Fold each of these.
Amino acid sequence: MTDLQSRPTPAPATDDPGTAHVVRRKRPKRMVRRTARHVVMILASIVMIYPLLWMVVSSLRPNDEIFRNPGLFPISFDFSNYARGWESLAQPFSHYLINSTLLVVGCVIGNLVACSLTAYAFARLKFWGRNIAFAIMLMTLMLPIHVVIVPQYIMFSQTGWVNTMLPLILPKFLATDAFFVFLMVQFIRGIPRELDEAARIDGCGHFRIFFQVILPLMLPALATTTIFTFMWMWNDFFGSLIYLTTPDNFTVPLALKSFLDTQGSSDWGAMFAMSVVSLIPLFLVFLFGQRFLIKGFATTGIK
């Protein structure tokens, strides 16, 4: 009779020589794939960030060297580009930064107020034609601005608002940015209706429910709207070019274009230097608001 108790216990799977050999074979392949993935991502990042790095480096080069050297290592440094760019236009460059700031602040306030109220109406109120109005609003997302720019310009020209910032700011108070309305509608639909019903039992009307219950919970969506409105309006060149005709009213994009001269020589170094300066507000806004931006998209299902 065989003594079962004296039979040796089978070794664990990890101690099996065959399994250990397979693990040792897979480990280098996994490291190679991981290394290759990181190399591809680093190369792609360099390709994507190269224009920005080239612009920063070119802001420190003399004009005659900018387009002769496509590399990122300048032969000589010329810090006077920043001083010359700041003072070479009709107004100091701070004047155009202030104009852009006023424009962006007005547009941000308009979008936050109008889009949040419109989104609450679409998400919570029941009225005749709500679904049709919402579908029409969504269709305007596919409408290019070039289709409506001519009737808009005629309308604002007849009201005497051309060469002011009103044609750029006023439409924001009418919830014309359908993307932000849709974003907030999706966010409000994710808020439980039981909160509304509890507030209604306490005697709250729609305005108190909106301002005291819904609006405090909409912080990620409001932050996302603020960041995108800031970025789009700070970089808006077409709208400013259409409506702002006097150099004193120019915003940053129009001021940067003023460095280019189609008849004579363009001051490329000063233009690149002021382009770097104009990127600083965008960088700071994105740096401090990116967590709200990601949270806003994640909670509205727009990924």
Note: The two ends are 69 Å apart (CA to CA).
Amino acid sequence: MADKESTHHGRRDFLQLTSIAVGTVGAASFGWPLVFSMDKSAEVKALSSTELDIASIQPGQAILVKWRKKPYFVRRRTKDEISAAEKVEVASLRDPEKDSARVNRDRPEWLVVGANCTHFGCIPTGAKATENRGEFGGFYCPCHGSHYDTSGRIRKGPAPKNLPVPPYKFVSDNILRIG
């Protein structure tokens, strides 16, 4: 009688272990493709950041670049523009933000901001030196007359917020990565 029970017990253990092993393999074979399919596609990864060579941008110049299908200004500010942006009394601004909070501390000559007016999304002028840069020397939205300073902060007009600063970093001395 004891041998019969131990035989049943041995079969039961074998069936349990086999069931657990088959279940584990089944779950892994179903779960791995599911987890793998949640990874970003190559197209999404390619759009997640953009790199540009900024060596040819002279002080006072700006370029318009696209990242994630939206325009951004990359501007190399002059020493006078940096000084003017730093001297602004932050408390007097509609959207108070220090210039130092909007630029890279080590390279304050570079300003990277979104190029859509925060009022209705028009693209302000000011990328080219010949364009109207508004009363504060930064950017001017011709749609409704918003004026931004050399730090991209709203100074006059209907726009409620500063031009947004995207995530960016300097990969090397001449390569800037947005995103």
Note: Helices lie at 2-37, 42-47, 79-87.
